[in-house]
Amino acid sequence: MSSFVIDTDTTAPSVSSSSPADSARAGRNSTISITFSEGMDNSTITTNTSNTSCSGSLQLSSNNFSSCIQMTSSPTASNSSKTFTISPSSNLSLSTTYKIRITTGVKDSAGNALGSQWTTSSGFTTRWTQQLGTSAKEVGYGVTVDSSNN
């Protein structure tokens, strides 16, 4: 009689990266992406699409999660269900810092939950980008940069 061993995945997933990244400057209409260390169970990656409560497992907030930004739709999966992208339902506020939070409600494809809640440490700050013909101007923090002058 032969025996076999079933290799069961018991490793909790982790967050590999977020976009916009911590301390980055981002446009007011930026999409938010989170990449995990392994393929995730898509049904556990959720966000709030109906109001500003901090519900769902992927959240975005400018006030330490007293309220959250409403998103246009459920997260979109890519990269073999490792990367999830969401879009705010309206432009983010100018010169405002936003943090991303992932709750322990997310699970990998084997059913392992995130080991602990994950939040960006410093968050990203919004700036305004305006297209003018063939040049782009970034405005934020009282500084204007005209990219047509390189």
Task: Summarize the structure in words.
- With 150 residues, the chain is mostly beta strands.
- It is 0% helix and 34% strand.
- It contains no helices and 11 strands.
- It has strands at residues 15-19, 25-27, 32-36, 58-61, 76-78, 83-86, 97-102, 118-119, 124-132, 135-140, 143-146.
- Strands 2, 4, 7, 8, 9, 10 and 11 form a 7-stranded mixed sheet that branches. A 4-stranded antiparallel sheet has the order 1-3-6-5, with no helix packed on it.
- It is elongated.
- Residues 133-150 have low confidence and may be disordered.
In whole angstroms, the N-to-C terminal distance is 74 Å
Inertia-based shape: elongated
Number of helices: 0
Q: Tell me the fraction of residues in β-strands, as a range.
A: 25-35%
Number of extended strands: 11
Radius of gyration, CA atoms, in whole angstroms = 19 Å
> Would you identify the regions where 5 or more consecutive residues have pLDDT less than 50?
133-150
Share of helical residues:
under 10%
What is the residue-averaged pLDDT? 88
Q: Largest sheet, described in full? A: 7 strands, mixed
**What is the subunit organization of this protein?**
single chain
Quickly give the structural class.
mainly beta
Element order: H for helix, E for strand: EEEEEEEEEEE
